[in-house]
């Protein structure tokens, strides 16, 4: 009789652990719509047209900052224009050491998932085989000096790096 409760407890604990591991592996930490305990989780296969949005893979959106509403990447980090880039040229002027400090915002597809950006969003080929995201034909970048969402530490660096408004204009404050 003494072994039965211990076996039952072990089986229940193993089942709970298995359930917790499955829930953790399928939840997106960026997705604030994840289910909480007691809610039934449903899984839907995304269609071709909405696969990124359905999976929470938004690559560009907008957020508030000390400079107003700005374009941010999927992690909420501020996007920047480089004044040396030529709009609609299909190439980035940032190379070598520039890319160390100003990594491009990239997408795995030619059609990034976008929310809240009214400017035209596209891509150009990136050196690593992915696609560098463009806004109004201009490549966009992150700044390594921005550690958290809302940071705008790259604003006006060397008078050539500019935060981007949702309509695609440079913010020059």
Automatic annotation (TrEMBL):
Keywords: Signal. InterPro entries: Lipoprotein_repeat. It comes from the Bacteria. The keyword Signal applies. Residues 28-51 have a biased composition (Acidic residues). Residues 1-23 form the signal peptide. The keyword Signal applies. Residues 25-54 are annotated as: Disordered. PANTHER family: BLL4220 PROTEIN. This is Lipoprotein with Yx(FWY)xxD motif.
